[in-house]
Design goal:
By secondary structure, this protein is of the alpha/beta class. The protein has a single domain, classed as Conserved hypothetical protein from pyrococcus furiosus pfu- 392566-001, ParB domain. It is built from 3 helices and 7 strands. A 5-stranded mixed β-sheet has the order 3-7-5-6-4, with helices on one face. A hairpin with a 5-residue loop joins strand 1 and strand 2. Helix 2 packs across helix 3. The longest helix has 14 residues.
């Protein structure tokens, strides 16, 4: 999230604010094709077991998709662990993705 502010010389600047944790529908999250190749089923199983005991402790990161919905930035294994547990919601942060 961004908030417009003013530099001491009066010029406008962008100020980054802390992202707010939100709840997202897993069905609305798209995984980029390159990320799908990195899935480790053993890691998903381990995370799912931990989530059964402790819940989701670390939110995922998403950006708004160009055609609606959201695109996963970080947290693929956490997302798939929740899906494997039959969950339909995920905690996450909506962030402004920057191109490198």
């Amino acid at each position: 999230m961004r908030n417009n502010g003013l530099h001491k010389c009066g010029a406008p600047v962008q100020i980054d604010l802390m992202p707010v944790k939100e709840i997202f529908a897993i069905a609305d999250v798209r995984i980029p094709v390159k990320r799908k190749k990195t899935l480790d089923p053993g890691k998903v199983d381990n995370i799912a077991q931990d989530m059964l005991e402790n819940g989701q402790t670390t939110p995922i990161r998403l950006r708004t998709g160009k055609t609606g919905g959201y695109v996963l930035i970080e947290g693929y294994h956490r997302l798939e662990a929740l899906r494997a547990l039959g969950e339909d919601k995920v905690e996450g942060y909506l962030v402004n993705a920057r191109l490198h």
